[in-house]
Design a protein that fits this description.
Layout: H1 12-21, H2 28-38, H3 45-61, H4 73-81, H5 88-101, H6 107-113, H7 118-133
Protein name: DUF4259 domain-containing protein
Pfam family, one: DUF4259
Organism: Shewanella sedimentimangrovi
Length: about 130
């Protein structure tokens, strides 16, 4: 997974996805990343990482910014340049994806369960859930 922290932006997959968002001109990349997590019986870590960053984008579009960092900068810059309003369907999909990613049929959950940071990672997920529902 190439992670250097438990934050949603703190891994190679998230960083790659964030840079790809910079080229996007609509919400399709965000929607695709979230839907990819919903389509799996078992969520691969890369799919989970991309969905989490996409959901971070949804929260930011709602004005519920999380922690900003050099790793979140591509998403933050994209949000500041675009004025999209996430639909109720996108928010509902985000909620469903979060529950699946933080569940037992998720490689990310399994990977974090093998570390001392599982609780911190789950708190990040909960914080994100609160922001998209605020």
């Amino acid at each position: 997974m190439g992670a250097w922290g438990y934050g949603n932006f703190d891994n190679d997959t998230a960083a790659d996805w964030a840079f790809s968002l910079e080229e996007s001109t609509d919400l399709s990349l965000i929607t695709e990343a979230i839907n990819a997590a919903l389509e799996e019986d078992y969520i691969d870590s890369d799919i989970g990482c991309e969905a989490l960053v996409a959901i971070e984008a949804v929260a930011r579009l709602k004005g519920k910014w999380g922690e900003k960092s050099a790793y979140s900068e591509p998403v933050d810059n994209w949000i500041e340049r675009n004025n999209f309003e996430p639909s109720k369907d996108l928010i509902d999909s985000s909620n469903k994806a979060l529950k699946l990613i933080a569940g037992q049929n998720s490689e990310l959950y399994e990977l974090w369960a093998e570390t001392e940071d599982l609780t911190s990672w789950l708190e990040e997920i909960k914080n994100l859930e609160q922001r998209i529902n605020a």
